[in-house]
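Human:
Care to share another protein and its fold?

Assistant:
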Amino acid sequence: MKLKITLVLLLLAISITMFFVSPFSPFSPYSPQEVLALSPAPQSLKRVADFYFDVATGDVRNHSSVNKFGRNADVDSAAAEDIWDGGVWNEPTVGQVYTMTSTSSADTSDGTGARTVRVSGLLSTTGLLVNETITLNGTSWVTLTNNLQMVHRITVLTAGSGGVNAGTIYAVGNTDGTVTAQINAGNNQTLMAVFKIPAESDGCLLGYYASANKATGQTATVNTILKVKANGEVWQIKEIVGLIKDGSSNITRKYFVPSCFEPLTTVKMTMDSNVDDVDGSAGFDIILHPN
């Protein structure tokens, strides 16, 4: 009997205590909103449902995504051409300081064309990613502060009344004279399917796309070629996909198992055509993860 009375009193004491500490009790020192504010944030309980989406949004620690896209509007039959803003892309031979210039005097600090640009590349000393913003000075040369082993993207940030770069903007190596990247007039950023994996990461290729257009003339046979060059080695062909077209043709290639490459490996897309005047585009997606 005494045991039953003790249990009843214990339950009663617990009930009274819960009443007074409940956020919904008039005697509670906290409101329901304050209790919720003290609770763990919902995102702390997040479960990764889509790995690639979460990488793209920065929710996977030490991982990042790279989307490279390019266009070569005039691929001819004389030789294979890389998919970027020029013809054959010349890899820089040394780490060096780059100088920026435009073919138009309107691309300057107070001009109607491009005013400031962001240059993205890899530092010569460490191989790490870096961005640098400069103000253009028309057809005069503007020298970057950083010494770079690679420039893989240039983006127009601000412009005058024209809204776009009036001339072609070049990044030229001061040592070897290579044009590593360029923005063709009106594009506001480079279109180059070329990327060098930074030193702190491995790069896993998820897939690529390619398309070819030819408005007139004979049917074109176009080979799209994926090439990689490991640090200190030579270019290797990793895949060739044919596009036979009269008008336009395209292909999207997704890997069930990503193809991964070591740090400082350069990846690029190339096209080889049997006729002139082919307008080629290509691009790829890479996930960077710690090595």
Summary: The chain has a mean pLDDT of 87.
